[in-house]
Amino acid sequence: MADRITDTRTTRQPASDALAGARAARDSAAKRTRVFLLAPAILTIGIVGLMPLSIALVYSFLEPGTYGGVTWAFSTDAYVQFLFDRDIFDDSLTFSTSYLSIFWRSAFLAIITTIGALLIGFPTAYFIATKPPAQRNLWLFLVTLPFWTNLLIRTYAMLLIIRDEGFINITLQMIGLTSGPIEMLYTDGAVFLGLIYSFLPFMVLPLYASLEKLDFRLVEAAHDLYAGRVQVLRRVILPMARPGMIAGCILVFIPCLGAYITPELLGGGKKLMIGNMIALQFGGSRNWPFGSAAALILMAMVLIVLLIVNRSRADAEVSHG
Amino acid sequence: MIEISTLTKVFGSGQEAMTALDNVSVTIAENEFFTLLGPSGCGKTTLLRMIAGFELPDTGEIRLDGQPVTHLPPHHRPINTVFQNYALFPHMNVAQNVGFGLEMLGRDRKEIDATVARTLELVRLDHLAGRRIDQLSGGQQQRVALARALAPAPKVLLLDEPLSALDFKLRKEMQSELKRLQLETGITFVFVTHDQEEALTMSDRIAVMSAGKILQIGRPMDIYDRPAARFVADFIGDINFIEGTVTDGGTVATGSGDLAVTAPLPASGTTVTLAIRPEHVMPGAEGPNSLAGTLAERVYFGSGTVLEVDLGATRISCRTGDAPFAEGAPLSVTLPPERLQVLQD
C-alpha cells in the first residue's frame, strides 16, 4: 500500500512536463475529433457538389467519343462550337448565333415566367399573410400540396387540361363559345403556363415569409399620414417585402432557366431550350464535351445574374443607411 | 371642434360580443389637451382609433369642425396619430420618416425639407436627421414619432399611450415636453392613458372611461376633488370609502359613528358611500366628525407618512407630514364635513 503511494508521487515529480504533454495530447485529440466531425459535411459537399462539377469541367475540355462518352484528348472544340460553326470541308470557323439564340430564348422565357410568378405570387402571399394565424397554415398547405406529386405527373395533368381534346377546349365547345379547338398545347404559352404552375410555390413561400413579418401597424401609420392604398403598397409594403421578392425571383428564375420536362412535354420539343439542348448532347447527339460545356456556360450565366442581384441589393442597403 | 355623439361599437357577436363603446358622446374644444383615462379594455383606444379613422362605429357620428368625418378613411382626415409602439418606418431614416406625411400630401421638396428641419428642431432632434431608426434610443424614437405626426400640421394630434414604453425619468421629461409642444403648436391633443398621474398633470380636461362608457368629464381638479362615481374616485388617487345611511337629522350614520356632511344628501334612509382623500383626514384632532380608533399601521414614504387607523367597522388611511404616533396606540381622526364626498351607486 505505502509503496504504491510513494511510487505515484515520484512519477508525478516533473509536474509541468507531464501537464504540457497532457495538453498536447488533448489538443491533437481535439483536432482529430474536429476533423472526424467535419468529415460528413466535407464528404457530402465533395461528392454531390464538387465532384460532378469537376467531371463536367474536365469533360468539357475533351473530345467526344463516337458512341457517347469521351476520348482522353485535350480540346477546346466544345467551347468553340458554342459560338462558331466549323465548316465540314475546310475547317474554317464562322460566327453562329444558333446556340446563343437557344440560350437567349430560355433566358427570356425564364424572365417572363419569373415576372408572371411574381405578379401572381405577391397577391397570393399577401392574402395568406393577412389571414388569421390559424388559417394561414391551411393556405400554405394548399400552396405546397402540388409538391406531393411528381413534377412529371403534374406536367402531364397540365397537358391533359390544355390539349385540343382537353378540359378547356371541350368545355368551351360545349357551351358554344368556340366551334373548334383553340391550339394551346405545344406553344410558348403552354411552356410559360407549365413553368408558372411548377414554380409558383417557390415564389409564394419566400414572399409569405417576408410579408408575414410585416408589421401591419406600419400600414396603419402610412394611412394615417395621408398615404392612399397605392402609396402604402409602393412606399411601405413593397420595400419591406423586398428580401422575399429577391429570394422568390432567384428561386423561380434559376430552375426555369434549366427546365427540361416542361418545355419537352408542353412545348413538344419544337423549340429547343437550354435544358433540352444539354440533354440532347448526352443522348441523341452523343457529344458529352459539348453538353458539359453548355452546362458550365449556363452556370456561369446564373452566377453573373446572382452577382448583379447581390450588388444591387448591397447598393440598396447603402442608400437606405 | 371634435364633436362625438352617441358612438357605439360592439366587437364580435353572440356569446362573445364585447361592447367596446357604449353610447359615448363628448365634445373636444380647439387647442385643448384632452385626455381619455381608464383601465385597459375600457374602450379609450377604440375611441381614439375611431377618431383616426381605423375603426368604424356601429352607430353614432364624429364631426370635425362641423363636418361629418365618421366614414372618411384615415388618409383623408387632417388628424395624425402618435402610435403606442411608434410604428416608425424601419426602411427610412429620421428625416424621411418625418417628411412622409408631407410627401404624401404632395408638397414640394423645398417645403418638405424646411418643415422637416423645423419640426426636428421643435422636438430637439435636428442633429439626428440622417440616422436610421434602429440607431435611435427609445426616447429618441418617441420624439421622431411625435415629429412625424406634427410635421403635416394636423388639426388634431392623437396620442395612444405614447409614454408607456419609456422609463420613469424620461416619461416625466416627455410629459412637460408634450405640454410645451401643445402650447407652441396650438394643435388639439387627444391623449390616451391609463396613468392617472400623467392625466392629472398634463390635461386641460379628462374623460374617465370604464367598460365602454364615459363616467365623468372635467378639469383635473374637478375629477380629483369631486368624483362623480365610486369608480372615478377609486381610479384616480388614493381614497377612503365609508358606507353609511342618511339619517332624518341630515347626517350619515356609519358603523363608526354619525358624520356631518356639507354636500347635499339624498332622502333619509338612502344608502350612500362617503369618500375622503387620505390627505384630507386629520389625525388626532378633536371636534365635529371626529372618530375614535387605534393606529394599526404607519408607513413612511419620504415626503410624509401614511397612517392606517382602525375605526372598528372600517379602516381609514390618513396622510400627514410628521407622525409622532405609536402603532397600536389609540388615535382619533377628524373628517372635515366639507371634504366628505357623497357618492350614490
Automatic annotation (TrEMBL), chain A:
The chain crosses the membrane at residues 35-62, 102-126, 138-162, 189-209, 244-262, 290-309. GO terms for biological process: transmembrane transport. It holds the Pfam family BPD_transp_1. The keyword Nuclease does not apply. It is a multi-pass membrane protein. GO terms for cellular component: plasma membrane. It is found in: Cell membrane. Its main location: membrane. Residues 103-309 form the ABC transmembrane type-1 domain. The keyword tRNA-binding does not apply. Keywords: Cell membrane, Membrane, Transmembrane, Transmembrane helix, Transport. Belongs to the binding-protein-dependent transport system permease family. CysTW subfamily. This is ABC transporter permease subunit. It comes from Oceanomicrobium pacificus. The lineage of its organism: Bacteria, Pseudomonadati, Pseudomonadota, Alphaproteobacteria, Rhodobacterales.
From TrEMBL, chain B:
GO terms for molecular function: ABC-type polyamine transporter activity; ATP binding; ATP hydrolysis activity. Its EC number is 7.6.2.11. SUPFAM superfamilies: MOP-like, P-loop containing nucleoside triphosphate hydrolases. Keywords: ATP-binding, Cell membrane, Membrane, Nucleotide-binding, Translocase, Transport. GO terms for biological process: putrescine transport. The keyword Membrane applies. It comes from the Bacteria. Residues 2-236 form the ABC transporter domain. It is an enzyme of class 7 (translocase). GO terms for cellular component: ATP-binding cassette (ABC) transporter complex. The keyword Transmembrane does not apply. It catalyses: ATP + H2O + polyamine-[polyamine-binding protein]Side 1 = ADP + phosphate + polyamineSide 2 + [polyamine-binding protein]Side 1. Belongs to the ABC transporter superfamily. Spermidine/putrescine importer (TC 3.A.1.11.1) family. Part of the ABC transporter complex PotABCD involved in spermidine/putrescine import. Responsible for energy coupling to the transport system. The complex is composed of two ATP-binding proteins (PotA), two transmembrane proteins (PotB and PotC) and a solute-binding protein (PotD). NCBIfam families: potA. This is Spermidine/putrescine import ATP-binding protein PotA. It comes from Oceanomicrobium pacificus. The lineage of its organism: Bacteria, Pseudomonadati, Pseudomonadota, Alphaproteobacteria, Rhodobacterales. The gene is potA.
